[in-house]
């Protein structure tokens, strides 16, 4: 059994060519066979097959939806009943949640079958999935390379063909970067459109859930189910430009954009203005990434779009602004892990204060400790105004730069996701902040709360086997437009169809 799209799986299930139990068992077998990739942190076949049997019963009754019986997997920052939720940290090594995250709940209600929990950077802090307390995840295209982070396991599981779709989270690029480096498609929706309830918090004003899959059309099916207002999440939005934030919004917008493209005939993208920021092609970007992205943009132009050169003058400031704001919020969110109520507790201590400090020192890894220290410092008396407040001012300026471009100069913005192809595992051990610089093209979007996606557009590296992604950035609530553009590009290219050869 080999399926490349969700549509193919749906057809096979509905025609009884295959059952949900058979699909789930095949995914479980492949996950075990490819365990060396370290993409999964917890698998429970009994729980998975129980969900699959329920999906088969639903199909037998003729009550199935687009995702009923589809094997998926969840990033290990979404809490799940039954499966452990560790956030890839020793602090939560044995934690099992009594409830499901809203994203997990909605996908389960849609009939998806969970194969297990996916590896990630500890508490989603990282760009290469090397910060996991349970070991690095490997890139299926080149097992010497990182898969990107923090949703590295999510991208690797799709790239390796274990499942067709996964969930991830994006705080500063953590869906888009692994999607780019693993040659799959991924989207970060507008902040607030997908519930954060039950998603272990890193930086609350930045964290947003998003799906990863092989192609844009499959992302539509996942995001449409994941999106929607949730009264349990105070950051959840009820309305998206006058349209209710509910299931159907993304798919309707996608269908409307696709119909418009089809009406334009041989130049489907006629009238579309693509903004290309000059700052995204300045010093620091590798020649192979630059060429691949330029060729991808040229393909959009060949389909009728107009290229418009624009400027996002504060692009470089996104790095210092993000690495003040995100650690500040992380230091606050992670203060709850004190060894008192849940999480790791040190075995040797004298008194409450030493118990808390030792528990945190033992439970948190180096990168998490580093960011907690930074965050605590910038929030401390005497430094709040100089660092945190100033970073928030810059954040607003960065958002204004994007709005000025998207409201007056172009309809979407395109550029690279990362400056280079995937680095080798362990390359930056001598420079703990080197990975932060690789976030330069993704951080501004997160600070502004805009939607953005990554789609495959080429390969590079010494062996020519390390994927390159194209980033497509839209205005607020324009997920349907981005996905329609990605689908149009993928109808005329085959980068998304290429699969890693893993055995």
UniProtKB/TrEMBL annotation:
**What job does the chain carry out?**
Allows the formation of correctly charged Gln-tRNA(Gln) through the transamidation of misacylated Glu-tRNA(Gln) in organisms which lack glutaminyl-tRNA synthetase. The reaction takes place in the presence of glutamine and ATP through an activated gamma-phospho-Glu-tRNA(Gln).
Class of enzymatic activity (EC top level): ligase
Q: Which HAMAP family match?
A: GatA
Report the EC code(s) recorded for this entry.
Answer: 6.3.5.7
Q: Does the keyword Metal-binding apply?
A: no
Q: What is this protein called?
A: Glutamyl-tRNA(Gln) amidotransferase subunit A
Write out the GO cellular component annotations.
Answer: glutamyl-tRNA(Gln) amidotransferase complex
Q: Which family does it belong to?
A: Belongs to the amidase family. GatA subfamily.
Q: Which reaction does it catalyse?
A: L-glutamyl-tRNA(Gln) + L-glutamine + ATP + H2O = L-glutaminyl-tRNA(Gln) + L-glutamate + ADP + phosphate + H(+)
Q: Where is the signal peptide?
A: none
Claim: Protein biosynthesis is one of the keywords in the record: yes
Which GO terms of the molecular function aspect are on file? ATP binding; glutaminyl-tRNA synthase (glutamine-hydrolyzing) activity; transferase activity
Name the Pfam families on file: Amidase
Q: How does it assemble?
A: Heterotrimer of A, B and C subunits.
Q: What are the entry keywords?
A: ATP-binding, Ligase, Nucleotide-binding, Protein biosynthesis, Transferase
Residue ranges annotated for the Amidase domain, each copy included? 22-483
Do you know which NCBIfam families this protein is assigned to?
gatA
Active-site residues from the entry: 75 (charge relay system), 150 (charge relay system), 174 (acyl-ester intermediate)
Q: An example of a Gene Ontology BP annotation on this entry?
A: translation
What InterPro entries does UniProt report for this protein, alphabetically? Amidase, Amidase_CS, Amidase_dom, AS_sf, GatA
């Amino acid at each position: 059994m080999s399926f490349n799209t969700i549509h193919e799986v749906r057809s096979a299930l509905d025609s009884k060519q295959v059952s949900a139990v058979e699909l789930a068992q095949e995914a479980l077998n492949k996950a075990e066979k490819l365990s060396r990739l370290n993409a999964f942190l917890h698998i429970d076949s009994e729980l998975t097959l129980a969900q699959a049997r329920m999906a088969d019963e639903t199909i037998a009754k003729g009550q199935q939806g687009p995702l009923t019986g589809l094997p998926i997997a969840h990033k290990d920052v979404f809490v799940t009943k039954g499966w452990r939720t560790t956030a890839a940290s020793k602090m939560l090594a044995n934690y099992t949640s009594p409830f499901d995250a809203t994203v997990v709940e909605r996908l389960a209600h849609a009939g998806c079958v969970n194969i297990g929990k996916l590896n990630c950077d500890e508490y989603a802090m990282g760009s290469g999935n090397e910060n996991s307390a349970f070991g690095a995840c490997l890139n299926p295209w080149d097992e010497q390379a990182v898969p990107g982070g923090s949703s590295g396991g999510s991208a690797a599981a799709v790239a390796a063909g274990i499942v067709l779709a996964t969930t991830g989270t994006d705080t500063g690029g953590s869906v888009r970067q692994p999607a780019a480096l693993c040659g799959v498609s991924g989207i970060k929706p507008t902040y607030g459109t997908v519930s954060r309830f039950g998603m272990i918090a890193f930086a609350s004003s930045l964290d947003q859930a998003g799906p990863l899959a092989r192609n844009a059309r499959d992302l539509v099916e996942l995001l449409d189910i994941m999106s929607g207002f949730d009264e349990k999440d105070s950051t959840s939005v009820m309305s998206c430009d006058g349209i209710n934030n509910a299931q159907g919004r993304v798919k309707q917008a996608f269908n409307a954009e696709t119909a418009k493209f089809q009406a334009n005939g041989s130049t489907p993208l006629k009238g579309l203005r693509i903004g290309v920021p000059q700052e995204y092609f300045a010093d620091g970007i590798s020649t192979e990434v630059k060429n691949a992205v330029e060729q991808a943009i040229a393909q959009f132009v060949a389909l009728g779009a107009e290229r418009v050169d624009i400027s996002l003058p504060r692009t470089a400031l996104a790095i210092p602004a993000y690495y003040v704001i995100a650690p500040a919020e992380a230091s606050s969110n992670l203060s709850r892990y004190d060894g008192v109520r849940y999480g790791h507790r040190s075995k040797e201590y004298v008194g409450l204060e030493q118990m808390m400090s030792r528990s945190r020192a033992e439970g948190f890894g180096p990168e998490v400790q580093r960011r907690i220290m930074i965050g605590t410092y910038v929030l401390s008396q005497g430094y709040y105004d100089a660092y945190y407040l100033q970073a928030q001012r810059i954040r607003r300026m960065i958002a204004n730069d994007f709005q000025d471009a998207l409201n007056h100069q172009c309809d979407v913005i395109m550029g690279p996701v990362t400056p280079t192809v995937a680095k080798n595992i362990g390359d930056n051990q001598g420079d703990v902040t080197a990975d932060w610089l690789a976030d330069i093209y993704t951080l501004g979007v997160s600070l502004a709360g805009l939607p953005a996606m990554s789609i495959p557009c080429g390969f590079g590296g010494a062996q020519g086997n390390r994927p390159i992604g194209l980033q497509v950035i839209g205005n607020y609530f324009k997920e349907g437009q981005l996905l329609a553009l990605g689908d149009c590009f993928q109808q005329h290219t085959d980068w998304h169809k290429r699969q890693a050869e893993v055995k």
